[in-house]
Please model this.
Amino acid sequence: MEQEDRRLLAALGILVIVMILLFIAGMFLIKPAQVPIQGQADATSVRISGKLPGRVAEFYVREGNRVKRGDTLVHIYSSTVDAKLYQAQSMENVAAAQNKKVDAGTRVQIINSARDLWLQAQAAQSIAKKTYDRMENLYVQGVISEQKRDEARAACDAANAQAAAAKSQYDMAVEGAQKEDKAAALAMKNAARGGVMEVESILEDQYLTAPCDGEISDIYPHEGELVGSGTPIMSVLKNEDTWIVFNVREEMLNTLSMGKVIEVMIPGLDKKTVKTEIFYIRDMGSYAVWSATKAAGEYDSKTFEVKARPLETVTDLRPGMSAVLVGE
Model:
């Protein structure tokens, strides 16, 4: 009986040892299931907007349409801006006429009138000079008084001054406007032209065109609605410029370095495998931090955004499709 008890205890001891060995081996050999790293596809989206505030008159495309660079997308009408253009053009015409008038100089009638006045002043100057000379001779001979001689000299000086003034008026009429007046008139003309160009530049956006090839993904207003300056009208999706974005914990970055080529699986494309190259790595800020759940043995871990661009064009890859990292 005692011998059977010994055998039973020995068997139990061996069983316990075997279980301990199996447990130790499992700790080293059995790895926990790896959680897949999943992201999604994204693409560049270009918003279409213009400087012209007005009413949406007509759309030439619908959501989902493919467009080429330069295709007309929408017509925006503004009666207010049309009126401003008419006003600016009228101001330009006024400034141009004024500038032309200044450049043309003084009218012929005014020049002839000034010339006649100058000739009259010259004649009066000649008579006054002869009169003074005669009075001077008579004064020297003692025929007239000094008072008479002085009066004749004063009349001669006045005639000389009138002749000089008439000559200045004639010269001014011949020369026309001053250089400063001409420069001011030209500046006003250029300023008016600048006003017209400004309104015309705004009206250029009454027909908005596609800035690139792509697909119309969103149209925001409806026909007939008012839109302000800079208001987004629609978005063009550049399907050819796509990438895959992952949000991973920072301890995973040792296998996801800049420029590394990685493979991703696209479930939405019949689980197609695509090679991509990492071109962007950046932390997502303090709001995206994985906090430790235990008091000891763990640490906070930040979340990083990783973007990888396909090395070849992937047909039918659309933004929002899931992508799973392969082999990491």
The first strand starts at residue 38 and ends at 48. The chain has a mean pLDDT of 79.
